Fold these 3 entries.
Entry 1:
Amino acid sequence: MVRSSYRLNSRLAAAIPRSPPRLHHVCRLRPRHREAELRALDATLSRVHGLVASGVTAVPRIFRVPNPELPPPPPSSSQESPPLPPSIPVVDLGGAGGDREAVVAAIRRAAVEWGFFQVTGHGVPAVVAGAAVAAARAFHESGGGEGTDKARLYSRDPARAAKYNCNFDLYQSPAANWRETLYLRMAPDPPTCRNTAEALGLKQGYLTDIGCNQGQMILCHYYPPCPQPELAIGTTRHSDSGFLTVLLQDQTGGLQVLHNNRWVNITPLPGAFIVNIGDLMQIISNDKFRSVKHRVVAQSSRPRVSITCFPSNPTSTRMFGLIKELLSDDSPALYRETLVKDYVEHYYSIGLGPKKAINDFRL
């Protein structure tokens, strides 16, 4: 039987210290006690949203980041103003006066220099994108009692085509992320894969021909407002497991990419999609394109909603290795071949972290 959200909230609330602890003490929680609190969270369908709805004013211990990455101190008044932070490139897929080669070149530069870029001119009507975000928000902000969609879809079974839960790596991670997710397995054919193939110097349909975009996993993330955002994290720093990621986000912000050893905010651009390189693309491109670490910071102001699409087919029996056209005497193979299923399973088994999984596939 599913326990009530009241029981969970009472149990986790009891674990919250009455006075704020020092940062280096926030996660000193015995494994046995931590396991009990994780299972209490996992036993109700209200999840993080339920904690916020119950009125918690402090972050429970299981969400507290062991080593928070504090922002650098502000410059003193005697110092010069710091330079404006950089921003990820924006590529207009319908721009450059219809010059396709110019668009491909822009994608190539963005992929090589950043691994992240925003795209406009993609042809998706704003009303459609807005409706998708609104639907994701409505699902996550709905109740979680028995008989609801959340109860029906709740699962941690990786084989389920549609499921809902809080943190896929809840029991592996040092700290639970302040978010919950609806997972949907779909099968469209995204045009981004075609543009990326050309950016690698391959024919337009190359990535489609080898099955990189057969199947889609769509993740609808919800990040409730956090009462102590400095102690928690929305999503741990990580690189994505797949070939490419296409992200639609609302206007809340919070997504950051690590560039030149510096966290850079990705300011939401109305109507734009964010595209980033995944681990499997780094593997098959032999490091021509690299996946990049990114994260989502917790915020106290309002909830954040994002919809992420991963072109990937975990049931494929094709072995993916280095694209032969990209190999040479000066550029030997750096990674061993793998099934998508095997790589994704390994990625999920160790949980989110700073590019842990891909290093295990280097030759």
Entry 2:
Amino acid sequence: MVLVQKKSEHSSSSSSSIDGRIIAVKDNICTTDLPTTCASEMLRDYVSPYEATVVQNLKRAGAIIMGKTNMDEFGMGSHSIYSAFGAVVGPSPPEDPQPRSAGGSSGGSAVAVAMGMCDAALGTDTGGSVRLPASYCGVVGFKPSYGMLSRLGVVAYANSLDTVGILGKDHDPRDPTSLSPETRKRLRENLSKSSYNKASLRIGIPTEYNVTELTPAVREAWETTAQTLLSLGHRITPISLPHTPHSLSSYYVLAPAEASSNLAKYDGVRYGHRSAADRSSPDNILFAPTRHDGFGAEVRRRILMGAYALSSEAKENYFIQAQRVRALVQSDFDAAFVQPNWLKMRHKDKRAPPRDGGQGRVDVILAPCALSAAPLLSDVRAQRSPLDAYVNDVLTVPASLAGVPAVSVPVWVEGGRNPEGRPIGMQVMTQFGDEGVLWEAAKILEGLGTMKACEGR
């Protein structure tokens, strides 16, 4: 990690809430004074000619960019072990010195925050890449509604899923996925007409998230959190998100498909790593050796998966079907929340239905963020198949497919089935654009303190 000690010359003269704060930046977010490598040999020495909008905004607000953080190569991974610079090691207490997973792909950012190296860090979340590391490292990880924050200057993995893990209010006209000022205004106006009771939130518990792979410690933390919230006067309601079981399959068709297209430009001709074998190949192969040497095994695997999903023989059966599943997942969330999805409402419809006047039943959804506490790195490396790692995203992918905001908040449960006392990430999700309620729920979770484990069922 390269440190930048001086304050940016672009900082605003007026003080802001982050003036002088130390911020770390994930290494797939472009900076002009530090390399942007995406943890890949393909871009090992690459320095961007322009800065990402999110970095520019931080500097204007007076933040100090301390350096870039390690990650899974091009954001593809769940444990931050697929990096040309070596694996990220998660934080561990002195009594538990064994190296643990930091989660991925924003593991370096999560560790930097957890270890007190910075006040905050930027990450990117495509299918859970901010929330999963936050859960493993015991910090807060926030994914805003899709399009709320500009991703101009973020090296793309899957354009329709990528989000930067901080909240933003300003539109960037150079980023086609950033919500327009008119849409943001409509969201603010309609959401301001809605009401909810902070003392008695309607909290949904999705039955489909109670998968068999949940470890006893995580299931106990989920139950204890729900019971504690109930005792504080909040309403707990079982809900169904019926297409959740198909979310993971849909994600691992759509994300690699978009990645295969986005990474096609890394051929060693226009920019990036160039293999010497390209110049001396007797078969006159132009860039195959470059792409083999420049990309790690996991990135190559996902490029191949995506290329096949987009091929003429497979597109209808895989890519198109995955898009249909994505639409069904979005509909599940819309049906669950009391708040309507204003992004889908007609522009001419000025009437705001009452918050409890729709078919939905809950203000927020509460579920675990990960299947377990941070696993040992040795166990992660011993996994026999990449599918063992892909399943880690099963609880975070649905919110990404739906584009709804989500935040992972660490909870601590005393006694019970987590004798090591490791933090467990609880995930709160709300309707698209409803970050106000999301943060109220997150504050409530943070205020629970250490809870006593409820008796197992």
Entry 3:
Amino acid sequence: MDEGTGSCGMALEPDALAEILGRLPPNTRRRLRLVCRHWRHTVDTRTATDLRPRRAKTIVATAETAYVYEDLSAAAERPRELWSHATAASFKGMTMLGTCNGLISLCDDREPGGAITLANPVTGETLPIPPLPPPSYAGGNRKWHRTYSFTHHPATGRYKIVHVPQNLDRVLVFTLGEASWRDVPTVYRGARCDLDAGIVSADGYMYLAVEGTEARVVSFDLDHESFTSVGPLPAILSRKGSWGLTEVHGRLGIAFTHISQDLVRTDVWVMEGVPGNPKWSCWYILQVRRLPHQAASSLWMHQRHCLAGPHFAHSGKHILTLGASNFVFIHVPSGNTRNALHGVVEVNARNQGRVIINNAGQNNHSATTKTFCYIETVEQLSVYKCW
């Protein structure tokens, strides 16, 4: 093989090569990029390591169904069912945790500790993950899915599942390809994780909030498995309101919500830079004004729009919200503004967005309906089973 000319003794047709490489773990594919130019081009453009927005789809999932949207900008598009009770009874009642390179993680809160299963809808494979070691799941019934994060490190190619107990003395880490969970001690002995704020993974880090009188966010380096304080947070968090963590186009985001008599405003601040030395910019603003028929304050709060999660920003052009009756709405933000670099969405009587899915009749939307960025792959889960 001559790397300079790009010729390779293992000459394969592009489709056949992409099919073979797509079945390998991401870290193996990265090493195989060095074989020749042809292989490097195929890995970069035709396998799951290519995470560019042009390939991204959108999943809208509940505890009962999951649908895929190929292109949110197509007004007449009908979503494709990924699974339902009828097609995948084994997923019934599970909560979807996240997606990484086309692999999907689900949590069954009915099992002690929350049983984790990985799935690849394209190949039809599933991979149950070994349960947490006792006494990690002591404490009875709870919403276990809130304590997990399914992550991928872009440089090493490793997939990890991280369990975050509310007591932050330690976290537990399961790396795909290994046989068991590992205890990782933290420097936050006695501190508690604020599970209401959410757990977010982005660009090789996992982020979580620490309970306390002041807003505090820490990062977990997925490569070195060490914690660091994120550093100064947006000044807006010192105001009266609520906030939570989100992911915005591969970056950490903080969504701050302030409620007044006739307006609910959510500002999304995105971290640019690295933990310990962050720089924050306001990327989006969502303003929801009280509609004329929502005279009672309690009714308005129940029916108002809120940002979908954990991924609300899709394809670089749209944001998704959840509204009354479990509807999912799509919006196109206004152009860049002085106060929001990527635009403002105004929801009012004349503009409530376009409905893309109606989950009416299912459970409360804030607890069950989630939206995810998704890239299909034929990567095999069986290569990771070693227990």
